[in-house]
Design a protein that fits this description.
- The structure holds 2 protein chains of 2 kinds.
- Chain A has a single domain (2-130), classed as MetI-like fold.
- Chain A is built from 8 helices and no strands.
- By secondary structure, chain A is mainly alpha-helical.
- Chain A has helices spanning 2-11, 14-26, 29-37, 42-53, 55-70, 74-80, 91-101, 105-130.
- By secondary structure, chain B is mainly alpha-helical.
- Helix content of chain B is 43%, strand content 5%.
- In chain B, the strands form 2 sheets. In chain B, strands 1-4-5 form a 3-stranded antiparallel sheet.
- Chain B starts with a strand and ends in a 25-residue tail after the last helix.
- The relative contact order of chain B is 0.10.
- Classes of the chains: A mainly alpha, B mainly alpha.
- The interface between A and B is large, with 56 and 53 residues.
Amino acid sequence: MPSIIFMQFVMGGGSTIVLVSAALAGIPPSFVEVARIEGANPVQIFFKILLPSIKPIILYLVVMGTINSFQVFTQVYVLTRGGPEFATTTMVYQIYYRAFENFDLGASLAQSVLMMLILVVFAVIQFKWLGGEVAY
Amino acid sequence: MKTATVWGVMPRMPDFSARLEVCWNYYPSSPRREVVQYAKAGLLVPLDEYLTREDRKDFVPKALEYFTYEDELWAFPWAFGNNGMGITNLIYPPMFEEAGVDWKKIVEKGWTMDEFVAVGKKISHDTDGDGENDIFLTGFQGKDPSHLHTDWPWIHNFGGRLLNEAEDKIILDSPETIAGFQFLVDAIYKHKIAPKGAEAADNYGVIKPFHAHKLAMGNGGPYEIGRIDRYFWIALRNTFYYAAGIVPLWLIKALIISVLLFPFSTRLHTIFKSMFYLPHVSSLVIISLIWLWIYEPQYGLLNAMMSSCTSPPRSGWATGSWPCPRSFSCSS
């Protein structure tokens, strides 16, 4: 599993970067200027000005990232086939395996529904956590 | 757990003396003798700690007793075969019970060829009313000669042998072997207890219908059961692990890069953003295939890089566990 995470870390995340830097570019320059005039150091600027300003984008990225990473399949299928000893078997791979290798369609359907419910719960939690008090 | 693993339910001729000695006369020696030899030599680790109670439920007690030596378990029926596919017999008990067949008795006492056919006729039946059976007792496969070991026990029961006593001549055309093959053909076409098309079926042609409950018996190993029922929670845990790893990592990476780019001009932004976005253009399958090469144990890029450090080459980059971070320390 670390191998797959590492691969995704190096290769993926491009759209995250594009969105975050677009969001940062969208912050009115006056915010940062005022902070600087008030004597804030760069760390304070980052945590007090920039980060809260791009909170909606971060919320979007966390929710979508969670959903996307629950759907991880291709890497597992190509790299490890869920092995060794089920160490990299993810839910979608398991669902695929049950449905199309074992022809146990009912169980894989049940797993898919369960996965959807888990994702809904996660999204709700994330919205509660990050969704409040969105600045500007 | 609805599926039981049974080692030794293949029918035997009554004159076979050893109770579990089903088909291993076909092999040079019985697995137990080898296992005990290795255990005595201290080459094996007892498995008792590694099998959970749930794991044990996969096996008929007798199958585990067979590999117990001095009160410790040294092996279990898994994939006794010559190509990884097992000839451990899996049975699906509900199909036997539905037909009123006492499968426990078969497992305990064994059965003869005639009983095998009789049970087969009870279990095999037609479901869609076209006059042809759709549910069968078992299946045979003859597509791949290297998979013959799953059919061979039946032929062996008729006295069919691959080699003569001196082991210098193949005697596949002996009358006994032909009688064994005839039994398989009769099971399909006369008794209708196995599906047609055996000549084009391989191991998967037997095990997949078994999983779909079209066959009451199939050849495989307990690994087939593992894939049926138990690994959902492991998959869930792995997925959580993956999500918990990748979402923060991506966010941190994105924040660091964006903040570093923040003071620079828009043109530089665009250049870097397109650089980082570029991998998204190629297919994930291709990326994975390339990384398979990077992780490759012998010639892979990662091991080549690591070999310039203190760390010895590793074989399990793609699949195994990774070394803990401190072993990454490079000195040269």
